[in-house]
What we know:
By secondary structure, the chain is of the alpha/beta class. It has three domains: 3-246, 2-enoyl-CoA Hydratase, Chain A, domain 1, CATH 3.90.226.10; 269-430 and 467-497, Alpha-Beta Complex (2-enoyl-CoA Hydratase, Chain A, domain 1); 432-465, no CATH class. The protein contains 21 helices and 17 strands. The strands form three sheets. Strands 10, 11, 12, 13, 14, 15, 16 and 17 form an eight-stranded mixed β-sheet that branches. It has a seven-stranded mixed β-sheet with strand order 1-2-3-4-5-7-9, sandwiched between helices. It has a two-stranded parallel ribbon with strand order 6-8. A hairpin with a 2-residue loop joins strand 2 (76-83) and strand 3. Helix 5 packs parallel to helix 6 (172-178), helix 13 (335-350) runs parallel beside helix 15 (375-388) and helix 17 crosses helix 19. It is elongated, with a radius of gyration of 26 Å. It starts with a helix and ends in an 18-residue tail after the last helix.
Amino acid sequence: MSLRSNVLDLRKRRKEVQMGGGEKAMEKQAKMGKLNARERILALLDKNSFHEYDLFVEHSAKDFGMESKVLHGDGVIIGTGTINGKPICIFAQDFTVEGGSLGLMHARKITKIMDHALKMRVPLIGINDSGGARIQEGVNSLAGYGEIFFRNTLASGVIPQISVILGPCAGGAVYSPALTDFVFVVENISKMFITGPSVIKSVLGEEISMEELGGARVHAEITGNAHFYATTELECFEQIKTLISYIPRSNAKKAAAYPPKAPLKGKKIEEIVPVDPRIPYDMRDVIKTLTDGSEFLEVMEHFAPNIIIGFGRLDGETTGFVANQPMVLAGVLDCDSSDKAARFIRYCDAFNIPIVTLEDLPGYLPGVDQEHAGVIRHGAKILYAYSEATVPKVTVILRKAYGGGYIAMNSRHLRADFVFAWPTAEIAVMGPEGAANIIFRKEIAEAENPDEMRQQKIKEYKEKFANPYVAASQGYIDEVIEPKETRSRILHAMKVSENKSVYLPSKKHGIPPF
Length: 514
Ligand code: HXC
């Protein structure tokens, strides 16, 4: 055989395998409005950058009729490539091959590329479109997912791990993403559940659609399993590219710096925030007056919207933002917002991303629902995350900073490096109304005119405590600043913190209130 015929034979073999589950199955996938696994990789990566491995791997199952089946590539594509010139490792499950289910060889392909990503210290992207553990392969498929979960855990905090859910994903195909840093979902396409509707029907006798059980909206808004929500696959890939631009390749690096840009000219910061602490405003508008080019990549936009988390740049450097959102529940901390912020703080800390905290909140949300949902345990996570974080940490108190909220939102006491407060800041154990009603209860009750007395006591309390100057007199805040000075103060604080070096006590690991 000549070289040419060998090459032609290789091409023929490649083409056949690249057809995944065959033409009909590919057409079915397209009819559902889904790209196929290969198209997804090519759409996400830089042009001509994808290099594939293990194309010719076949499954090894011998039971339940599997012995006579050919599963091209065993239902998953693995490889390396670049996104905006940055190297990444990737796998994409192919739903056209046995529902993208994971058998032994499928799992070996995924673990091979995971090992590579960890060894080479580059981000790992997993495109999940799979019914989970392949039923016909029994314990071998469970073993396969176990090996994946183990690697997800080892890689956590070392390399960025990004999961994309692009189909009905069950069992291990959602537990592996849950162990990764960021989960992307797409309207109508993504479904995530541990057990699908058919299992629910047979075990519980209940009918439920895949969408109601675990559609993209469910996970973006209710469960908090998803971090980014898109309306199309292509929009989702753009979101991934933007995220990659903000984060470093591994925990040993800093994120790439971009040319510094001024924020866009628009409403001034002092015009956005009303002086009256009872009037809400959109904290996103404040963030955009601070970031380069007013750009901000919000994470978990639709979940626990009473807190805002996301990435922006300050003088070209990636910065994480954690900010109360006075427009939703007055920006209180509750179970979900504490979980959301705590995990993000730990992400920033693991990947050398400094954190800016913008504070305006009345404290933790009171009530039986929250207490019974475990607000003590969940709320403690944010205390733990800020205390443990050693990246540069800057706080600005805009208006309210009451009670536990004051401490939790990166106060000096949790080792903020710089704390600034606007003259409108109110730092106290609780709001003046509540405080006056408790500490002056007797005087108010005994007064000739209780209402008048209450108003007088509220005024007294306000004058004494509801301002930034008591905290400033103790050195708990470093400076009371004019709102228009906010960006320049933060930029300078970040500049002088560039070389920050602090050490925590040596330990195997802490025990955060998971
Ligand atoms: C083998 C599977 C499969 C699986 C789907 N298929 N899931 N084959 N093992 N786990 C096959 C189907 O038989 C079908 O083959 C093809 O893939 C497409 O599946 P459909 O059911 O036709 O598609 P759809 O209606 O879209 O439903 C998708 C689905 C459903 C919701 C994922 O297939 C489903 O519920 N599958 C089982 C999910 C599950 O319970 N997996 C095990 C999880 S346990 P044909 O030949 O007909 O085209 C697990 C262990 C880890 O993962 C646990 C971690 C803790």
